[in-house]
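::Amino acid chain::
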Amino acid sequence: MFLAFREEVEDALAGALDSLGYPTDDLGIEEPPEGVDAVLASSAAFRLAGVAESPPPAVAADVADAVDVSGYTYLGGVSSQGPYVNFTPTADYYADTIETADEDHGRLPATGEDVVVEHTSANPTGPVHVGRARNPIVGDAVARLLDYAGHDVDRHYYVNDAGRQMAVFTWAYETFDEDDFDEPPARDRVEYDLVRYYRKGNAFLEDADPAKVEEAEDEIQAIMQGLEEGDEETKARVTEVVDQVLGGMRECLARLPAEFDEFVKETRFMPEPTRDLANTLKEMDEAVFEEGAWQLDLGEYGIDKNLVFLRSDDTSLYPTRDLAHHQWKFEHYDRAVTVLGEDHTLQADQIRTTLDLLGEDTSQLEQILFGWVNLPGGESMSTRAGTGIDLDDLLDEAISRARAEVEDRLEDRIRDDDLDADDVDRIAHQVGIGAVRYDIVSKQPSKAITFEWDDALDFEGQSAPYVQYAHARACGILDAADGASDTVDASLLDADEERHLVREVARFPGVIEGAAEDLRPHQVATFTREFADAFNQFYRACPVLADDVDPATRDARLALVAAARDTLANALDVLGVEAPESM
């Protein structure tokens, strides 16, 4: 209803401004200031004060008087308050919101637009580390958000199965065996086993006898050259390593969960697409041959570091293959969204600028850059050195801490559904994983964050458990009800807390639309906290199942609780957070 209401406000306001001779290019429609009893407001009076040669409050009053609300379904009233023009809804707005807010609430109509969201894409050299956890969490939430917004979304993981790292890994895997290791794998999963080979290989190349290192480097170079030439035997050797490590990483990511429609490998664009692209880049005005490599001088475009795209031995680099990858995405999708760590800022600028120079329509490309996730005290996150904290460890700790919180609250539960050990395990998993995801996705991506356990698992604060508990409370009310009427009189929901909650239910699709336009899932997280606040205020002020509640009022409130449950469930689903029915 919110989107329909906004359309009516836009139409009525544009008509009023036009009748007064004011421009209608910027209506200034926004959420009203706190404490204003309206669904939408317009700040256009600020902009029009100069044109009208009157103070904003006077302009707002004139505009409000000129707005005609007759003939609209949901726009019921207009008034001015200071410099703002405020818009209030009709009774139909409340009734239709309650009637239509179901399990699909928040899903927007199909746009017909194909979108690829590439995220995570961590090199398959070992376990996923905490420092990189923001990528799959933010990336998965962005993909979910775009899906809710009506787009046809594919989730891609771009696999680095070429280049020196994978050549070193392949050589090490074929060179060393179990007898060469002093310690067993940290976990009984394949990437924890094989990462030992990668670390052993790097240590060997740094510390071994120079003659042996030179021999190893020759083999590593041969692997790289074989990949460059498309040699199938070399590709099979590398694939044996890559696919095993990637399989283990996928198990870890599935715990979040972060799942993918396709794993697109770099070698897919080798040799021909990358070779053809390198030849094209050589012919560009910006191409230079410096320090034994072909490069693009992008200084004219504000980028002070050259993009190196071809070594002196004619082997390509990651940026060259990534350019070919992007051209492929542009060919198959209407939009290409890429989630990257802040350490890729330069690379992102280089890629976009080069694609522009190649004549590609880079309006299709949207890049989300995020800051790192730190833990209190800070730890190094180097896979190569073998330090840092794995994402699996963080998730295990989250579940363990959540179980302790759930068990502490068992005796204080109001709901009489007895929870057994399996129930506690289920809730601990839902709350623990949800706490990690929610705490990370709720922050603006550009800001580095420090993960704090007490904040993430605070059942009374701005956290996943707080929102999840509101959903469980709604489920408890509905479970305890002995049925409700199919016909609901929404006009009975006239308390301030009831009307506020209905308005929050109504605006959820608008939140989805706005967050999807901005690629900002943290806006949905903010909405869930505000919604949980509104639901809790309603719960405290408006009894639903008490004996002295009128049956018709009871039915109306039950319908509102059901709408709130579905809204919360779907909002959490956008964030990839489970919505427990009992806690």
Notes: The two ends are 31 Å apart (CA to CA). The chain is about 50% helix and 10% strand. The CA atoms of residues 435 and 464 lie 5 Å apart. The chain has a mean pLDDT of 93.
